[in-house]
Amino acid sequence: MYTYSEFDEAFVRKRVAQFRTQVERRIDGSLTEDEFKPLRLMNGLYLQLHAYMLRVAIPYGTLNARQMRQLAMIAERWDKGYGHFTTRQNIQFNWPKLRDVPDILDALADVGMHAIQTSGNTIRNVTADHFAGAAADEIADPRPVAELLRQWSTDHPEFQFLPRKFKIAITGSPNDRAVTKAHDIGLRMVERDGEAGFEVIVGGGLGRTPMIGKVIRDFLPKADLLPYVEAIVSVWNLLGRRDNKYKARIKITVHEHGIEEISRLVEARFAEIRPAFSGIDQDVLAGIEAQFAPPAFGDAGPMPTTDPGAGFRSWLDTNIAPHRRDDHAIVSISLKAHGATPGDASADQMRVMADLAERFAYDELRISHEQNVILPHVPRDALPEIYAALRDAGLATANIGLVSDIIACPGMDYCALATARSVPIAQEIAMRFDELKLEHEIGPLKIKISGCINACGHHHVGHIGILGLDRAGVENYQITLGGDGSETAAIGERAGPGFSAEEIVPAIERLIGAYLDHRADAEETFLDTYRRLGLAPFKAALYPETEARNAA
After folding, report:
1. 3-state secondary structure 408-421
2. Cβ–Cβ under 8 Å, residues 421 and 475
C-alpha cells in the first residue's frame, strides 16, 4: 500500500498547523461560525445535530494494522469509544470537541492519514473495489490509479471550488463492487487486444435526482486516463450550475446538455491538454504501482478437516470470497451484528481486526462501501482461528449480502439534514429476520436505508430501498424496489405510499414473504424475481387493503 513521501508528510503537517490556528481563532471569537465553516469543511469537520463530526479519509478503503489501531486510540481518547465506517470508505467520529480536532489530525498524520477533501465542493475520497488486488475475477489492481487520482486532485488549484462535491469510483473487475455507475465519474477497467484501459462513465449519482451514469468512452488507454479525467472535471467546472445547488451536480449537466454534447466538449478539452501530459504522470504511476506489489504470499495448507460447527460453516458460506490464489481467501468482517448500528466498530473491535490483519492477512485491511471491513489476503488454513477471534469480539455475524447486512446512514440520530431515523429501522429489520431465522433461506438481498433525500444510504440502488421522510412532523418511510448498484445498475421503482415507523418492518416482512412465495426456485434471488415479475405481486403484498378494494 502507498506510504507517505517526505512531500506528503510536510503537506499534511502544514495543513494541520494551519487549521490549529483557525480553531484557536474560532474558540477565542476572532472567527464567526460563518467565517469558520468553509475552513473546517476543508479539513473534514462538520457541525452535526448534536456535536461536531470529523470525517477521516481512508483512500480507496485501504489501511494497515497500525492505522486501524490509531483510529481505535482516537475513538477512545477523543470520542466515545467507537467509529462509524461510511459508504465512501471513510470513518467518522461523531463526538469530537472542537479544541481537540487539531490533536486528532496530528495523530492521524503520525500514521499517514488525514481528513483533507472529505467535505466541501471538491473531489472527494476516491473509492475502489474493496476486494482490489485480491479478487479472483480482477483484471488488475485499480488502487494505484486511485492513488494517482488522489494525488492529482488534492488541493488541485482549478478544482477547489467546484459547483458541488465530485465523486470518483474505480474497479478493476467486470463485476462491479464499487457502484461505479452511480458516481460523477465511474471507471471500470477493461481489456482490448491485450491492452488494459478503462470504460469511462459520467453523470451518475443518487440524491434527490438519482441517475445512472452514461458511458462517455468505452475504451480509454491507461496512459490517457489522468488528462481525460481532468478534461471531464474542467468541462463540468465551467458548465455546472452554480445558481441552484440541487442542480449543480454533473448528472444534471449531462442531462441538460446531453451526453453527445458533453462528449464533444470533453474530447475537445482533452485534445487541448493531452500534450501537456508528457509522461510524468505515468512515471509517477509506475512509482505508485511498485508500492502496491502483491504480498510475499506464504504457502498455506488446507483448512482442518475436523467439523468446526454450524456457526463456522455458515460464516464460510456468506463471509468468504474467492481469492486469486486457491490457497487463500478474502474474509469480509460484518459490522452488522443483529441489533447493532450498521458500520459502527468499537475501539476494542478495531484492535482485534488490526491484530488479525497483522497476524494472518499480510498487514492489510479494507473498508467496503457497504460499511464492512475486509481482510483481503488470508491463508485458508487460518480461517478457523480467525473465525474464533472474530466470534469472541462480536464480529463473526454470518450475514454478508443477506437481509441484515443493511447499509444505513446515521439518520436523524446524528445528522442535521436528516428527516427521519435510519439506524433504529435497520436494527429492527435485522432483529426481526434473525427471530424468523429466514436470512439464509432468503439468500442474497440488499436493503439500503437513507434518512433523507440526499441518499447517503444508497437507497435508490438497494434491491429494497427505504427512504425516511418527514410528513407533517411524522416519520414516513417510502419503499423502492429493484435497485441495483452492480454492473447491471438500476434505480429502484417507488412502490407506492409510505409507511409509518411502526408499519415499515411488517411491510418489509410482507414484501419478502411475497418473494419467497413467487420465486421460481431457491436459486432465484429477490432481484431476479422482481425483474421477472415486475412490481405487481410485491405491491399487492405491501398494500393488501388497497388491492382488496380494487378487486372488489
Report:
1. ECCHHHCCCCCCCC
2. yes
Q: How far apart are CA 471 and CA 419, in angstroms?
A: 9
At 255, which amino acid appears? H
> Has residue 175 got a pLDDT over 90?
yes
- Please report the pLDDT score of residue 331 as a whole number: 98
| CA–CA distance, 355 with 111 (Å, rounded to integer) | 16
- Determine contact, residues 196/158, Cβ cutoff 8 Å: no
Give DSSP secondary structure letters for 66-86. HHHHHHHHHHHHHSSSEEEE-
- Cα 408 to chain centroid, rounded: 11
Return the half-sphere exposure (C-beta side, CA atoms, 13 A cut-off) of residue 410: 19
- pLDDT per residue as tens digits for the range 25-55: 999 999 999 999 999 999 999 999 899 999 9
pLDDT tens per residue, range 490-539: 999 999 999 999 999 999 999 999 999 999 999 999 999 999 999 999 99
Residue with cell 425483474: 531
Which residue in 398, 397, 340, 332 sits closest to 370, CA to CA? 332
Q: Give me the sign of the Cα torsion angle 522, 523, 528, 532.
A: negative
Give CA–CA dist 308/254, Å, rounded: 54
Write down the residue that cell numbers 433461506 correspond to. 441
**Which of 538, 523, 428 is closest to 492 using CA atoms?**
538
Closest listed residue to residue 79, CA positions, set 59, 111, 44, 51: 51
379-400 pLDDT per residue, tens: 999 999 999 999 999 999 999 9
- Please give the full DSSP string across 218-266, using - where no structure is assigned: EEEEGGGHHHHHHHHHHHHHHHS--S-GGG-SHHHHHHHH-HHHHHHHH
Residues in the chain: 552
pLDDT > 70? residue 548: no
Residue 139 Ramachandran class (φ > 0 left, ψ -120 to 50 alpha, else beta): alpha
Amino acid at 178: A
pLDDT of the residue at 310: 86
